[in-house]
Amino acid sequence: DPHYPLRRPRQMCIRATVDIVEAGTILCLTEGLNAVRALRAQCPDKIIVADWKVADAGETLAEQAFGAGANWMTIICAAPLATVERGHEVALRGGGEIQMELFGNWTLDDARAWHRIGVKQAIYHRGRDAQASGQQWGEADLSKMKALSDIGLQLSITGGITPADLSLFKQINVKAFIAGRALAGADNPPQVAQAFHSQIRDIWGE
């Protein structure tokens, strides 16, 4: 069964300890819309993200993502503003949201334009390759995140995040922490998820 990995008990045992479940880019490229549908069926009470990094055809792809059960869909920062607008319009009709993926080149003027048309969220990355090369979170990252927060965007932060990292982002308008590898590679994923929740409560009181 090609969808067996989506149903492994070990992976699903953390369902009670996370708030958002992402259908990641690699998974979606492999399994297509079935990845979103399967996660929606297994996690009916969770926010589901279709991490598609859309670059074009914003309306069509948003209709597919939200139609399959996603609550949020990602659009790459290099996408034309028209693509963002079309995707955002579909998201609004379905009660969903667009997340802008800040991979590669983008500017604060871009961020202002996204926010001006109604987009509320962005994802700030330390990418897989950057992390593997030893790149750490630094003042330049935090400064950019603060500027994005000041524009009014809510940030999801990702890139090898661990519970010990969270205090770095205390002054940032954080929407979520994306912790795929920290959970998937853990011996006890629910325990790690609880550690994230504990740190979030200690730092933000939520």
Measured on Cα atoms, how large is the radius of gyration?
A: 17 Å
Number of structural units classed as domains: 1
Q: Which homologous superfamily in CATH is the superfamily?
A: Aldolase class I
The pLDDT mean sits at: 91
N-to-C span:
40 Å
Order of helices and strands: HEHHEHEHEHEHHEEHH
- Percentage of residues in helical conformation: 40-55%
Under the CATH scheme, which class? Alpha Beta
Q: Which residues sit in consecutive blocks of at least 5 with pLDDT less than 50?
A: none
Range of strand content: 15-25%
What is the number of E strands?
A: 7
CATH architecture descriptor text? Alpha-Beta Barrel
Examine the coordinates and then state which fold CATH places here, giving the name of the CATH topology.
Answer: TIM Barrel
Mind summarizing the main beta sheet? 7 strands, parallel
Strand order of the largest sheet: 1-2-3-4-5-6-7
Structural class: alpha/beta
Give a topology summary.
Blueprint: H1 9-12, E1 20-23, H2 25-31, H3 33-42, E2 47-54, H4 58-67, E3 72-76, H5 81-93, E4 97-102, H6 108-116, E5 121-125, H7 128-132, H8 139-151, E6 154-158, E7 174-178, H9 180-184, H10 189-204
Parallel strand pairs: 1-2, 2-3, 3-4, 4-5, 5-6, 6-7
Helix pairs in contact: 4-5
Explain briefly what this protein structure is.
The chain has 206 residues and is of the alpha/beta class. 45% of the residues lie in helices and 18% in strands.
Attribute tags:
206 residues, alpha/beta, TIM Barrel, seven-stranded parallel sheet, 18% strand
